[in-house]
Amino acid sequence: MSRFISISALAFSTLMLSACSILPEPEQLHVYRLPSTVPSAAASASRSPMTLQINRPNSNQILDSSRIVVLPDGNQVSTYQGVRWSDRAPTVLRDRLIDGFVNANRFAAVSSDDNHLQTDLQLVSSLRAFQSEYRNGAPQVQIQLDAQLVNSHQQIIASRRFNVSQGATDTAIDNVVAAFGSAADSLSTQVIEWTVRQSKTASKQP
User: Fold this and answer.
1) Which of 85, 92, 122, 200 has its CA 20 to 30 A from that of 56?
2) Is 206 exposed, middle or buried (0-12, 13-18, 19+ CB in 10 A)?
3) pTM of this prediction?
4) What's the structural domain count of the chain?
């Protein structure tokens, strides 16, 4: 009886070792923050006394994810394997916009919708594109944001669609992520200047 148990145990161990050897290794995951090269700005002489809340953009199910979206061929939608954003794309972009507004020093205070604070203005938006698209074999980052500036009475003051494109130096994921960062910096600059202009109109309204 003891001999049977010993042989069975040996056979089981061999079987388990064989099974382990054929199991796929877990995918190595690399997590990226959205890079930025925009330095902090000095305090602006034309700083508005108004307060501003930046809301997390609405988006579809494909973009509302931490996966980095790529369109390798026409309308085919895919994602880069083994890489993720540090948060869901709409949150990553919202936080970049908040950083841009804070660094620009153009409003008395800037907050996010996570804080649920009462502010003079809200920047509400929909994220329509946040992806890499291949053009003639080269990746190009596309960001499209539909923005609305809303006052404390939930009235829309102004609306605008922003489109930004930025080519990557090559297909390496590090360079694609760098292109996302440059595109987001450009978008942030445009959104800030537009919001500042529109807020001046809002301040004159009763």
Assistant:
1) 200
2) exposed
3) 0.84
4) 1
